[in-house]
Amino acid sequence: MLEISNSVLVIIDVQEKLVKAVGKYSPVDKACKMAEAAKILNIPVIVTEQYPAGLGETVCELKEKFTDATPVIEKTAFSALLTPEFKNILEKMGRKQVVIFGIEAHICVYQTILDLISSGYEVYFVKDASASRNKYEFKTCVELLKQTNTKITCVEITLFEWLKTSKHEDFKVIQSFIK
């Protein structure tokens, strides 16, 4: 089960042009809920941007949820673990549960997940906070992830798994994200 003290949230490439490309499948609302919850629960966040000069930066409404300490790492490799800065930051955190989501689930999110698993991390893919331009490719990604050790989850399950109980001091505020 997810533990706040052992979790890190990884947000992959929720960028301007990619969000436009996924259109009605945009996960920005769900991504914002996850980032806001991580901030409230003091869960560290790492953000990547794939070639921001061409694809734009992380969308503004999501960036507003970050703290000053949130690293935003530019990358060109599809797997974030192939970017030394990302790998170093993740390793220094010392946490073993990676909650991950993003855009172009079938490319950058998928390849990052495979490398995370190979590196010994317990990986939770937040399906409803992720998207691909093509629904078929997204479905294929999910089917492939089912063949790995990835735990496929959603925003609501993740949030309540972190909280564990309605007695948690942040329960009311986190619950309000879902209503």
Q: What can you see in these coordinates?
A:
With about 180 residues, this protein is of the alpha/beta class. It has one domain (about 5-175): Rossmann fold (3-Layer(aba) Sandwich). The chain has helices at about 15-20, 30-40, 50-55, 60-65, 85-95, 105-120, 135-145, 155-165, 170-175; strands spanning about 5-10, 45-50, 70-75, 95-100, 120-125, 150-155. It has a 6-stranded parallel beta sheet, sandwiched between helices. Helix 7 (about 135-145) links the parallel strand 5 (about 120-125) and strand 6 (about 150-155). It is globular, with a radius of gyration of 15 Å. The two termini are about 25 Å apart. The mean pLDDT is about 95.
SSE topology sketch:
Elements: E1 7-12, H1 16-22, H2 28-40, E2 45-50, H3 52-55, H4 60-63, E3 72-75, H5 84-93, E4 97-102, H6 105-118, E5 122-126, H7 135-145, E6 151-153, H8 155-163, H9 171-175
Parallel strand pairs: 1-2, 1-4, 2-3, 4-5, 5-6
Quick structural gist:
Helices cover 43% and strands 17% of the residues. It is of the alpha/beta class and 179 residues long.
Q: Architecture, according to CATH?
A: 3-Layer(aba) Sandwich
Distance between the termini: 24 Å
| Number of DSSP strand runs | 6
Radius of gyration: 15 Å
Structural class category: alpha/beta
Largest sheet: 6 strands, parallel
Give me some keywords for this one:
179 residues, alpha/beta, Rossmann fold
